[in-house]
Structure formats: structure tokens, C-alpha cells
Amino acid sequence: MEIFHIVIIGIVSCVVMDLWQRLLKLLYSINPSDWSVVGRWFVLVVSDRQIYNPTIDQVAPIKNELMIGWIVHYSVAILYSIFFYILLEYGICTASLINGIIFGLISVVVPWFFFMPVLGKGFLGMKTPSPLMACSLAVGSHIAIGASIGGFYQIFGY
Description:
By secondary structure, the chain is mainly alpha-helical. The protein is 71% helix and 0% strand.
């Protein structure tokens, strides 16, 4: 039953993050993450074995890249749920909204120091038009998913 909870918590938490991004779009006209670029990057990693692709935005679209990007996005959320579950199992943290927020804040190192750089945006989005905005959006999204993970594990009684 635990694997079911882990997967469901990952998926529902990812939905919360996506809703957060849609709210930002509605209120402030901030576009949500473009999962087609992530899908394109993933296909190229698998086919060309090249993780670093700084010109990904100029690469021609790949068939089904948007669907693949969404699958990668939700798979990563499930991985975050697995990591949080491991922290719970080893007694490193307890299931709570606060610990989820802390987890989300820590997890923001992934976009800041992995995804942004491999997609040519630089560490901390320094090669974007607005690095502070890029970093802030990542923080907000990761707080949303982290809080959801911590809160849902608490609701499920972990």
C-alpha cells in the first residue's frame, strides 16, 4: 500500500504545483513551465546521450515532446515523493506541512543547479532575462510541491 500512497502523493502534489503556476498565469500573466522543452531535452538525452544542451530552444520540435515533458514532470514529482518517504522512514523528518516546505526549499537546487544550466539558462538562471524572477518562480513551485508532499503524507498518517 505504501507504493500506492507514494505515487498518489507525488501525482497530486504535482497537480498542486501545476495549479499554482496556473494561478500565477491568471493573476500576473506569468507563463507556466514549458514542458515541451523538457520533453525535447529528455528525448535528446536518450537518443544522443547529451545532457547539456544550451541551445535546446533553437532545436526543432520533436514529435510528442509535450506529452513526454508532462510524463517527465510527473515522474520527477513521484521521485520527490519517494525521497520524502525515505526521509520519513529513516526518521530524518516527520510528515508535516512545515517539513514539506523545507523539503521543497531544499529541492529547488534541482532546477537552479541542474535543469537551468543543462538547458542553457545558467546556474540560478543567470543567463535568463530575469534571473531573480526565474529563481523566484522555481522557489514558489517547489514550495507548492514540497508543502503538498509533506501535508499529504501527514494526512495519510505517516
